[in-house]
Amino acid sequence: MTQPKTIIEKIWNNHIVHQEPGKPDLLYIDLHLIHEVTSPQAFEGLRMKGRKVRRPELTFATMDHNVPTKQRHIIKDEVSKKQMHTLKENCEEFGVPLADIDHPDQGIVHVIGPELGLTQPGKTIVCGDSHTSTHGAFGALAFGIGTSEVEHVLSTQTLGQARPKTLQVKVNGKLGTGVTAKDLILAIIAKYGVRFGTGYVIEYTGEAIRDLSMEQRMTVCNMSIEAGARAGLISPDDTTIEYLRGKRHVPDGEAFEQAAAEWRALATDEGASYDATVEIDADKVEPQVTWGTNPAMCVPVSANVPDPASQEKDYEQDEVQRALDYMGLEANQSIDSVEIEHVFIGSCTNSRLSDLKKAADIVRGKQVHEKVTALVVPGSKTVKEQAEAEGLDVIFKTAGFEWRDAGCSMCLAMNDDIIPPGERCASTSNRNFEGRQGNGARTHLVSPEMAAAAALEGHFVDVRQYTKTALNG
Amino acid sequence: MEPIRVHSGLVYPMNRANVDTDQIIPKQFLKRIERQGFGQFLFYHWRFDEEGEKRDSFSMNDKKYTDASILVAGDNFGCGSSREHAPWAILDYGFRVVIAPSFADIFYNNCVKNGILPVQLSEDETQAIIKKAEQQKLELTIDLEKQLVVEEEEFNFSFDISDYHKQMLLNGWDEIAVTLTHEDKITAYEERQHLTG
Predict the structure, then answer these.
(1) How many interface pairs between A and B have CB atoms less than 8 angstroms apart?
(2) If you measure CA to CA, which chain B residue comes closest to A415?
């Protein structure tokens, strides 16, 4: 009888092109996603060495990081403009398919991959972007790479990688009403820290994970990198297969049924072992709000900001104090007393149709607080169209939100969507690092529902108060 | 990439954990399409205020660290984004070695591919170097071949590095050229998987 294996080992073994003792395994890459920021130097490297793109048809490019989300074609920043133009030229020169700013498929690379059905179970997927872990939701081995690695994949369609250790994150029980996938992943990172996944690929398992929709699973896998893990994935099941059925790049008819059977077989075998396992009880997770400058600096909405004095080591005290100073918060302050000036609903973590629907349910018929500027940035043109078909744009605009075009936008503020110094944003994105949303900007990571509720109230509130009536009624 | 075998230089101590790549190089500097010239933007918002003036409160601006080529920092250095602009900025600024108790995976790989030696020492060893370098000018010698971090007076620490990464750094390999020697195996894989185009 063969040894039971995890999905991570199965995908790995299926992709080994070459193995040598003492060297990383050379893995075949099934899908290479690229965008304007981390690819120009890689294409330039190819040109300098007279190399070509080995498999342009396994490569897919889009523009997302720099694109304006209003007045789409007025790119004031000449350097941004040049970077986007360079991507277009490179894709033309090397024959790489591109969804540029005018293309109907344009969007955040981690939103459009799944949307188009390019992302499939069992694939190895890379992109010069750390949130490539998002695609792991489908049972793909997907991870972020640097620009030298982008060049390597363009040239060889392979990547040398040391075999990672495997880490099971087991989520027991069920999430409570009004508690989301975002709250779950934030709670996991708050509990185990920003580097417990370093050196590992995570597989998320357990009842609460099985209960998640594909879009919620993407939110969880997206933030694996915030725990230090380059990749985080979920074994495929009926939810995965039904999501993929009918997607453009997925086979149809008989071929789909055959692919589906192969995908199911990839799921981790009963009795397979991991190098490490951590667990969390879903029913104890509350809506979360980050208070500091990394995603583990996070508390439940009912809690207070920590006190540096209660940290064990002196450099930990320094770290907490520095974060509080940057964030303009007092030790032991209740998190729901924190007032905000901005709300951002978007990013590769939370900009899909279901995210927007849930936020819209909260704001329907209500008004954004007078002190708050609130922004909704759909993850792709397709998401935007679908949302408009359901009238979500009207709900948001009537409530006082701005309704923008697709892109990374205020998640990292490479375009004009920037939070001014010292101002505070409730954001559905993935990183609350110093300056992430603008120099001196203060970011609090939350779910779309929590962001929507904060937009109405002008400070953080437990969104379960808002949903109670709707859900019970 | 420039090979690295033995490096001696001055230490700049940064006693912070979880230094992320957004701090190493902020996003507004990622728009350039070149690999060079990022050193001026290294730790930009820590080094400079809103007016672009140097912050006296940030020790890297202290003249005594001007020639530093060894960066010593806290745990989980280089976490966050995959931007290779981070090691490009570190190298361009003049650092050849980064020492920390742990590194983020993508950042570590990005360093090796650019000829920056990432040295993993224990928390205690890192803290000892940081404390000393905060008090005085501290010169260290890092010998990659012997896997040692040495200082004249007291420090003599050994470190682990995979043999592959070590050879890459010692020889300054072009990894793509190495992989292309396995061209036949890549083609054979594609044929097995019916991936031939």
Answers:
(1) 168
(2) B28
